Amino acid sequence: MNDTPTQSAPEAVSLTASAAKRIQQQLARRGSGLGLRVGVKRSGCSGWAYTLDYADAVGSDDTVFESHDAKVVVARPHLEQLSGITVDFQRDGLNERFAFINPNVKGTCGCGESFAV
Question: Is residue 20 situated within a structural domain?
Fold first, then answer.
């Protein structure tokens, strides 16, 4: 399985194959939804934290990205902090999580919960 992210534009938000598979599994289990909504909120000592939710609709202020047959929805105001990121899904023992590879990050807090751009 090739886990290389695909990216359609420099500002795109992309998914690895493992992240896309996990999104598809979660949506199938849920029984509805069109993709994963990724955003940011002000938080922590470094300024920003990622937010995740199901995307049930696309609003007029949203941008949709697709990788490996899965969709990511991002509100345009969040694109400055999220431009160029790759979303991965990682398993380590019993722990599972979405991980963000963000080329815009200038620093993170000591606990890893927030980042600065």
Answer: yes
Predicted TM-score of the model (pTM): 0.79
Residue 117: how many CB atoms within 10 A of its CB?
A: 16
Structure tokens that stand for 8 in this block: 């359609």
With respect to residue 108, please indicate whether it lies within any of the assigned structural domains.
yes
DSSP H/E element including 93: none
pLDDT given for residue 1 in this prediction: 47
74 lies in some domain? yes
Q: How far apart are CA 34 and CA 11, in angstroms?
A: 21
Nearest alpha carbon to residue 6 among 62, 66, 64, 52: 66
- Asked whether residue 59 is domain-assigned, the answer is yes
Q: Does the pLDDT value for residue 108 go beyond 80?
A: no
